[in-house]
Design goal:
The protein is mostly beta strands and 183 residues long. The chain has one helix at residues 2-21; strands at residues 43-45, 52-55, 63-64, 68-77, 83-96, 103-111, 127-132, 137-138, 144-146, 151-162, 168-181. It is elongated, with a radius of gyration of 29 Å.
């Protein structure tokens, strides 16, 4: 009988201790003046849309070492909320001659007011100068913010700095951007 009572007591103690460790926590807070905004993020570069862009305006057929090609690039927030964007990859993709290796210097400036995209444009405000040998060269881009519907114009300059396998080449520039909602 004592054995049975001890077993029942042990079972009650075990059940009671397991049961007593179970806890359900619940809490809520009301915040006055909170606003939740939903919208869409959409970045358009040049005449295209999305985060990848082939910059055909920088194409020159053919290009020789030391030759400068530059053109304006219009970047537009086509979404419904403010966004922060930056250039993350850029570089040349050789079209001809097939297999030619090239290196370019890419430079970019944000055009403001009456500034034009010409040989006197001071570079570096759109993204830092970068030496690129491939279309997916990583760029430590500078973040820029655009409100919904707002545009920014960049002056992009490309200088062919090396083409060891050919006296002249034809290439295009591929750019990739990231865009996140502005805080």
């Amino acid at each position: 009988m004592r054995l049975a009572a001890a077993a029942v007591g042990a079972a009650m103690l075990a059940f009671g201790s397991v049961h007593s460790t179970g806890a359900l926590w619940n809490d809520s807070v009301t915040v006055a003046g909170a606003t939740v905004t939903a919208g869409s993020l959409s970045l358009a570069t040049g005449s295209g849309a999305g985060t990848a862009f082939t910059f055909d305006a920088l194409k020159k057929d053919p290009v020789t070492v030391g030759q400068i090609v530059q053109a304006p690039l219009i970047i537009t927030n086509t979404g419904t909320t403010s966004l922060k964007f930056q250039l993350v990859n850029a570089g040349p993709k050789v079209v001809a001659p097939a297999g030619a290796a090239v290196t370019v210097s890419l430079q970019g400036a944000v055009l403001t007011g009456s500034t034009v995209c010409d040989g006197t444009t001071p570079m570096g405000s759109a993204f830092p100068n970068v030496s690129a040998s491939a279309a997916a060269t990583v760029v430590a881009g500078i973040p820029h913010t655009l409100s919904a519907g707002e545009s920014q114009t960049w002056c992009v300059r490309s200088i062919l700095t090396a083409a060891p396998s050919a006296p002249s080449v034809t290439y295009r520039h591929d750019f990739s951007f990231t865009a996140v909602q502005a805080e």
